[in-house]
Design goal:
Blueprint: E1 6-9, E2 14-17, E3 26-30, H1 41-61, E4 66-70, H2 77-85, H3 90-107, H4 123-135, E5 139-142, E6 145-148, H5 164-169, E7 185-190, E8 205-207, H6 209-221, E9 225-231, H7 235-250, E10 256-262, E11 265-267, E12 270-271, H8 282-288, H9 291-299, E13 307-309, H10 311-325, H11 338-345, H12 350-364, H13 369-381, H14 389-399, H15 404-419, H16 423-435, E14 438-443, E15 446-451
Parallel strand pairs: 3-4, 3-9, 9-10, 11-13
Antiparallel strand pairs: 1-2, 5-6, 6-7, 7-8, 11-12, 14-15
Helix pairs in contact: 4-6, 6-7, 9-10, 11-12, 12-13, 15-16
The protein binds zinc ion (ZN).
Length: about 450
């Protein structure tokens, strides 16, 4: 198996060959969800993209050689706000959302990360890092608030490829009377009496959001590790701040060597937002779309490109999987030729890989057994067609609005209409069946049907 893996590294702003720190111990950290509201399709993208990367790394370097860490942010201003709005305790809210998030991951057929640490379980380590940063004069305290002093870190802005002035101009930085410089960011802040809080040298309070990723990545992957991933919106300030905290606390030149960021997801060409009300949550999708179709749809664009989520995309993915499932059978093989794998090794080019899958499918459907094994192995590598044929069919059946008797009666009615030359009625019936989740196919004298 080739180890010629290349990534576009946000840090160097170019494509680079991936050279791990240690060949037998690859480390990857991906920023996980803030569990304040049900995750949406924009959150599903990094889940699936980095799951594919996790699978590829395991394939190349060995099953147990890759450590994948994805955190859960279970303390944050957004969580406190949402708990008040929904009249739920913070614990109840975060547990409900985290549970739903895990069901989403399962639905999308994502492997569990090696570790999934929670922020609230690492408060002590976060306090230690703040203390460390204060001692090294990279942070300052002001009335129970502790801020990171951005001017103390010369490389700040390196990931975004911008200098501090450009960063300030291009974003909304938090205004606060407690900080000395607009770019300084919070490490620790006081909690109101009824809000969650922990005792610290600076009074009862809670950590700033960025801190947990620095602390938890170090705990599970060490001071320096290979890959850090997340959505494009995290580059600044979140990832810049992670780098600043970790490099200053640990006195290291680098934090993660390769930074991978996935592009945004729009919905019908519009930005998804609460105020427009066009947010597609994953738990809603679970009700009527098979998770594999969502997975395939998410992989249909290159991860760095924007992805537009729409009905057509879901339909196309469903149709493709319907077709592909005709080749399904249980296989043992895990052998994949480098040539098939190639697009994935070139900065995870999933659209090109999917076109290869179409070609392999064509070969396989000609009845060649070797091609079939190749096709199925290649699908499995990116987490598709792992579910057996029955569950795929049963899902469609369970989502269809009509039963067999209804369908057979309608086909009878339609054939009668055709015999009488009433093609208009025949078309209406076909459309009616389609709207109810059934597709029909006329072959010679026989009409067959299936759930779509
Ligand atoms: Zn993070």
């Amino acid at each position: 198996m080739t180890k010629n893996l290349n990534f576009f590294n946000t840090l160097s702003n170019k494509k680079e060959k991936f050279v791990p720190i240690k060949n037998n111990k690859i480390g990857m950290y991906v920023c996980g969800p803030t569990v304040y509201d049900f995750p949406h399709i924009g959150n599903a993208r990094p889940l699936v993209v980095f799951d594919v990367l996790f699978r590829i790394l395991k394939k190349i370097y060995g099953k147990n050689k890759v450590t994948y860490v994805r955190n859960i942010t279970d303390i944050d201003d957004k969580i406190i706000e949402s708990s008040k709005k929904n009249k739920k305790s913070v614990k109840e809210l975060t547990e409900t959302i985290a549970k739903s998030f895990h069901e989403d991951c399962k639905y999308l057929n994502c492997l569990s990360p090696t570790y999934e640490p929670k922020a609230t379980e690492h408060i002590k380590e976060m306090i230690d890092m703040v203390t460390n940063l204060l001692q090294k004069k990279h942070a300052y305290e002001n009335e129970k608030h502790v801020y990171f002093s951005v001017s103390s870190f010369k490389k700040y802005g390196r990931l975004s490829n911008k200098n501090p002035e450009q960063l300030i101009a291009g974003s909304r930085v938090e205004v606060s009377k407690y900080k000395k410089d607009p770019l300084d960011f919070i490490l620790w802040k006081p909690s109101e009496e009824n809000d969650p809080g922990w005792e610290s040298p600076w009074g009862r309070g809670r950590p700033g959001w960025h801190l947990e990723c620095s602390v938890m990545s170090e705990k599970f992957l060490g001071k320096k590790f290979d890959i850090h991933g997340g959505g494009l919106d995290l580059v600044f300030p979140h990832h810049e701040n992670e780098i600043a905290q970790s490099c200053c606390a640990n006195k290291t030149e680098n934090f993660a060597n390769y930074w991978l960021h996935n592009g945004f997801v729009t919905f019908d060409k519009e930005k998804m937002s609460k105020s427009i009300g066009n947010i597609v949550t994953i738990n809603k999708l679970r009700e009527n779309v098979n998770g594999q179709a969502v997975r395939l749809a998410l992989l249909s664009s290159h991860y760095k490109q924007p992805l537009d989520w729409n009905e057509k995309l879901i339909k196309e993915s469903q149709n493709t999987l319907n077709k592909w499932y005709s080749q399904f059978e249980k296989i043992e093989s895990n052998e994949l030729h480098d040539d098939i794998l190639k697009p994935l090794l070139e900065d995870l080019n999933t659209p090109e890989y999917i076109s290869k899958l179409h070609l392999l499918y064509n070969e396989s459907s000609k009845g060649n057994k070797t091609s079939k094994v190749k096709f199925l192995t290649a699908c499995k590598l990116i987490g598709l067609l792992e579910e057996d044929m029955n569950s795929w069919e049963n899902f469609k059946k369970s989502k269809a609005k009509v039963d067999e008797n209804f369908v057979n009666q309608k086909i009878k009615d339609r054939n009668n209409a055709r015999k009488k030359g009433n093609y208009k009625l025949a078309d209406i019936i076909r459309k009616e069946l389609e709207d109810n989740g059934v597709i029909i196919d006329d072959k010679q004298d026989k009409t067959t049907w299936k759930y779509k």
